[in-house]
Design goal:
Elements lengths: L1 E2 L10 H9 L12 H14 L5 E5 L2 H12 L4 E6 L3 H4 L4 H4 L4 E4 L8 H13 L8 E8 L10 H14 L2 E5 L3 H5 L8 H7 L2 E5 L9 E5 L2 H4 L2 H7 L8 H11 L3 H22 L12 E2 L2 E3 H7 L3 E2 L1 E5 L4 E7 L6 H13 L8
Length: 351
Amino acid sequence: MIRFNCDYSEGAHEKVLEKLIATNREQTQGYGMDSYSMQAKGLIRQICGRGDADVHFLVGGTQANLTVISAGLRPHQGVIAAETGHINVHETGAIEACGHKILAFPSKDGKLSAKQVEECCLAHREDMDREHTVQPKMVYISQSTELGTIYGKEELEEISAVCRKNGLFLFMDGARLGYALAASDNTLTFQDLARLCDVFYIGGTKVGALFGEAVVITHPSLKEDFRYFIKQKGGMLAKGRLLGLQFMALFEDDLYMEISRYADGLAEQLREAFHQAGISFLVENTTNQLFPILPDSVLELWKEKYSFSYQQRVDESHSAVRFCTSWATRQKDVDCLMEDIRNWKDADGKI
């Protein structure tokens, strides 16, 4: 079975494992207070150009999302997100379980617009009974989104400006941040994210680490007592140095971006093969997730050989599915799939 169903099927990049093995027998302080974690935080502050940023390592994306959101909101406040946002569709109600409503808005490409955020805030302010409704206080976006699309610099600047105008925190989920920054049409840098977002995180789980996310906080009020929230929400690892070491490996010698560019490059090969075969996509993007619309008969044939994720039904005989590449995807597996894309024809001679 060749797996294209997700970008976290494998363990970790060899350089990450080497650093873990080399320090395995060392005794260090726990809960992320060790020297390796401090060094990793320094590397991240450096690439973000923010010596004043707080950096915290959490064990996973869901823990990062619920910890940041619960830390930023009072009990009567909610978070604005696209209806396809990870917190809205794929975290088992983790945010609601913390007592906060997700204010979900429709999106065809997985992204929120500054206009939607502005309209949400305006509607709440002009509601004469607003104290009977949830108050918007945070905006949640993903880079890349659940549909593999990315925000450009101009888009993020517009959203950031609306958030600051209306007193909202801007939070970026960066579970796949490396693949977004490495995309061919990306216009954002780590420095831009640190300038425009109040808090964001750098995903490790999907980008070469065994596990872990690095939360970067620039807004002063979100920094206060954040470690208490990490502990309470189950995101604090006792053997915290295991997280710090992994991010040291990822941000030494540009490894994080190197492996992200590799994954995006393989995805581009597949994207071109699908296009040449006349296959359309649910949404076009330039990152490591592809959403081709394929005949059900093709999917039935391919499921014995490939693992992929079902996305949605498109019509009576076609479905959109997801193929992912990752830092560990093998070129020979991409070549195999491209060969099947080129060679398969349905009964009418069309893909």
